Amino acid sequence: MPARRKCLSAPPGLAPITFTNRAVAAVKARKAPIQSWFLDLGLMLGYWEGEGARSYHHTAPVNVLYGLHESLTRLLGEGLETAWARHRSAHDRLVERLEGLGVGFVVDKEHRLPQLNTVWLLKCLEDAPACRRLLDEFRIEVGGGLGPLAGRIWRIGLMGETCRIENVDRLVRAIAAVLP
Predict the structure, then answer these.
(1) Do residues 93 and 120 both lie within one domain?
(2) For residue 75, pLDDT beyond 80
(3) Which parts of the chain are beta strand (E)?
(4) pLDDT digits (tens, 9 = 90+) for 113-161
């Protein structure tokens, strides 16, 4: 769930989740005991529903909840449609500028998410040294590829409060500067 909290500009440590009434009924009707304390939804239901009895499942991460509240307050202030438009605009600018440098996108246009961008690493760049320069010289961190895409792609997030045209322009200038 990291991308979701990043898109909200919320601190790490929460994994928002919802359950349908049918799912809750299935948990309550369970016959076999839960084998692990972790994610025991029966204990969670006792904590949420309580019915006046003391139920202790975990210590709530209060500071993280305050952070989530603030991020949701900011999002409501901006407006969901406006936030979506801002992310789309920043993504479009990123595509335009990176394609101008000869950088191609891994995902076809019709399947891309504005917040999550994967681009092919240019043949003239070495992944680790280029990422190191971006971080050391420009204070910009790009995610490298994982698994079979390690050393072949970069993952660029345009999420939350930092998803701004000026940040896209700053990133593209930095990438241009690390090109040989």
Answers:
(1) yes
(2) yes
(3) 116-120, 143-144, 153-157
(4) 999 999 999 999 999 999 999 999 999 999 999 999 999 999 999 998 8
What is the end-to-end Cα distance of the chain in Å, rounded?
Answer: 36
Residues β-bridged to residue 154: 119, 144
Contacts 24+ apart (CB under 8 A), 148-154: 149/106, 149/118, 151/121, 151/127, 152/120, 152/121, 152/127, 153/106, 153/118, 153/119, 153/120, 153/121, 154/118, 154/119, 154/121, 154/127
Is residue 69 domain-shared with residue 97, that is, in the same domain? Answer: no
Digit-coded pLDDT (tens) for 167-180: 999 999 999 999 98
**Other Cβ atoms within 10 Å of 140 Cβ, number:** 18
Residues 68 and 93 in one domain: no
pLDDT of residue 1: 42
Q: Do 158 and 91 meet the contact criterion of CB atoms below 8 Å apart?
A: yes
pTM of the model: 0.77
Same domain for 160 and 122: yes
- Per the structure, the count of domains in the chain is 2
3-state helix, strand, coil in the chain (%, to 5): 55, 10, 40
- Both 103 and 162 in one domain: the answer is yes
Q: Write the CA distances from 148 to 45, 145, 151, integer angstroms.
A: 40, 8, 9
